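Page 42, continued from yesterday. The earlier attempt failed because a stray header line got pasted into the input along with the sequence. Redoing it now with the clean sequence only.
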Amino acid sequence: MKNKGSATLERPARAPAKPVVTEIRAAPDVPSYESAIEDLIRIRAYEKWEAAGKPPGCDVRFWHEAEEELLLGKRPPTNEALV
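This time it went through. Structure tokens are written below.
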């Protein structure tokens, strides 16, 4: 068999190097876990403040109570528990 012309093999072009991720940042429109928890605490503290008749100067107390309820799984006392 006779070779019809010479075939040349070319080395395939090298793919560009992939960038190395050095820092991971959340998308600006996606809330972080911490900010989502803080929002839940804020809402619960506000509910507690309203239920107490909106007393002035009690924001820290209601914040801590809401934090305990949500983060530690403590339930607020029900009316039945007070009887």
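Notes: The chain has a mean pLDDT of 78.
Reminder to self: strip header lines before submitting.
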